[in-house]
Design a protein that fits this description.
The protein contains seven helices and six strands; from the N terminus they run E-H-E-E-E-H-E-E-H-H-H-H-H. The chain is α+β, with helices and mostly antiparallel strands. It has two domains: about 90 residues, Homing Intron 3 (I-Ppo) Encoded Endonuclease, Chain A; about 70 residues, no CATH class. Strand 1, helix 1 and strand 2 form a beta-alpha-beta unit. The N and C termini lie far apart (about 40 Å). The site of zinc ion has 4 residues, from strand 5 and helix 3. It comes from Parageobacillus thermantarcticus.
């Protein structure tokens, strides 16, 4: 059964944070209202969409960090504009943690960074593991082989074709094993 709720005016939004997203809820509410051209449902759930917290606005799933950045910049982001998490924690959507970066420079900037301490990287990897993200399918990927391709600067696209799987599988594998990126958190 589909229930169609027509909202004529905006009721105060209530945020339901189901994935420990670190976010300024007032900013997020404002961003949702700014983004939508019509009133939105009163309860907005933050859920995991891939590796990132997201909200749904009139059926469009949108990552919280991208939505907020659009709101702060007051414009839509192009697909080749990535929003980088400075502390490498994908759950942290606080303003001071986010910056826009060209997609072409994004991965290389992660490799160049090398600023995170071993300890910090370990903490993030553990926290991510604890979240027990479910992966659709397990493709057998030799991590040493994957690392050598990453070292050769192969794109995720090219690597996924090489292994015969989808891009998210490769991304998840890197996500689970941050050391693959030259000892750097992804
Ligand atoms: Zn980044």
């Amino acid at each position: 059964m589909v229930i169609c709720l027509i909202v004529k005016y905006q009721k105060p939004i209530v945020i339901e944070n189901t994935c420990n997203c670190i976010v300024d809820e007032t900013e997020l509410k404002n961003a949702i209202i700014w983004y939508s051209d019509k009133p939105v449902a009163r309860i907005k759930k933050i859920f995991m969409q891939g590796n990132y917290p997201a909200v749904s606005i009139h059926g469009e799933k949108i990552h919280v960090h991208r939505l907020l950045m659009m709101y702060w910049l007051k414009r839509k982001l192009d697909t080749n504009e990535h929003v980088h998490h400075k502390d490498h924690n994908k759950l942290n959507a606080l303003k001071e943690n986010l910056e826009v970066i060209a997609s072409s420079k994004h991965l290389s900037s992660h490799n160049k960074g090398k600023k995170l301490s071993k300890e910090h990287r370990k903490k993030i990897a553990e926290a991510n593991r604890r979240r027990k993200v479910k992966y659709k399918k397990r493709v057998n990927i030799d991590l040493n082989e994957l690392k050598s391709l990453l070292d050769k600067n192969w794109s995720i696209n090219r690597i996924s074709k090489y292994f015969g799987c989808d891009r998210s599988t490769i991304k998840n594998r890197i996500y689970e094993h941050p050391h693959l990126l030259g000892g750097e958190e992804q």
